[in-house]
Amino acid sequence: MQYQEENDAHTKEHAERLDAQDPLTQLRNEFIIPTKSDLKRKTLTKTSNDDISEEPCIYLCGNSLGLQPRRTVDRVNSHLLAWATKGVLGHFTVHEDSSLPAFLHVDDVAAEQMAPIVGASRSEVAIMETLTANLHFLMASFYRPTKEKYQIILEGKAFPSDHYAVESQVRHHGLDPASAMILITPSPGSSTPTTSEVLQTVETHAATTALIMLPGIQYYTGQYLDIKTITAYAHSKGILIGWDLAHAVGNIDVQLHDWNVDFAAWCNYKYLNAGPGAIGGLFVHSMHGQVDMDAESRGERGFQPRLSGWWGGDKATRFNMDNHFVPIPGAAGYQVGNPSALALTALTASLEVFAMTSMSAIRTKSLSLTSYLEYLLLLESFPVSSSSAPSSTSKALASELPYSIITPSSPDERGAQLSIKLLPGLLEGVMAELEEQGVVVDERQPDVVRVAPAPLYNTHGEVWEFVKILREACERVRGGKVTGRGSVMVEGGKSEKGGWSEIK
Model confidence over 142-154: pLDDT tens digits? Predict the structure, then answer.
């Protein structure tokens, strides 16, 4: 997006024109946007003392927790009513006045809705458990270390839970993490490793590597790794590879089947808007999902080894109670216990919204939002008078701005998130000022603000307003006018019970 070539690209009017041309604009109406008074109120219900203003907040935090779809309440209430009026019979009953499936089949419906979002066939997707649990289930199946090939390659700055999961799997096999874990780190002075650096690490350790585990999008920097290229290179070296897609699913247009990804896992509470701590999802490529019970009867391996549970067993024999496990072919065979129908219902409400568009269209809008955000952030001064366009030298040197962007500048190497690194000492005050102005983003200590316009409900106008508020906040903090004490976003991030660092 070459906004520098447009004389009025820096103006709010230009942002409004971009929104008027947005083919996804009506999808914003599918979500409940909290108002500024909602954020400040200390009760769930409105009181007579509430600010009468119903101005919506600027919510740019879909990378942490997506907003609630309007239809979620209706779908969840319908589920609760079915439970209340049918009890156990709700497992098998479809109601004429409800679009919900019977409890027994809601996981199948969710998997079918999810498949096009991740570029998979229905049989390659299962909706189950939560992200770290699913990573454990998948590594228990695909990490099969030998004396010669025992190492796992992962990023050096992996989200802690991913690192813990890999380390515990290594220890579970009686291996030493110091020698069995190979950490990819960027070159000095860089925040992100290049694709060539990732491939070089694979090349160096190919002879001793049993598995590669990487993020589709890195949670801290927002870097989008080249899943297709890295997967193909891993396979050329005879190495299995899995992906943590927590920040990728619902954000970028992944094609897991066509890219021959071995396995992947993700959470559904970020861009997929299924609610706090929502049920997760996993992908197992069809080449690993085949089941041959005749081979098993001959003492040969008839299916990929795994940690098994009854919900992953063949539905036709699941209730035979004969202790003879016959897995469902595909990803569904990795299910362990019966999933929460309530959690699945909340997810399917959001997936109905995704079905109103396509990941290609979502990605196209995301590229526009993020490019516009970057353009405005890097203007020498902002806002600029509508009567005068920025000069040809309007992009400031990093030293002239109170922040830098550590997310790759290439649109092909990032998703919806830009990570903004503030100058030392600004974070708490800036976060407090953003909160006061009704802006919701999140932070990572000591100095990074993560900003993620979600294409389903955010607008270019909100991006414009955010940059204006951010830059004014930076100046106020530098001038000693803001402290940050008392801010929910700041104090919550310091909580001894866990803060922003607990949210991926």
Answer: 999 999 999 999 9
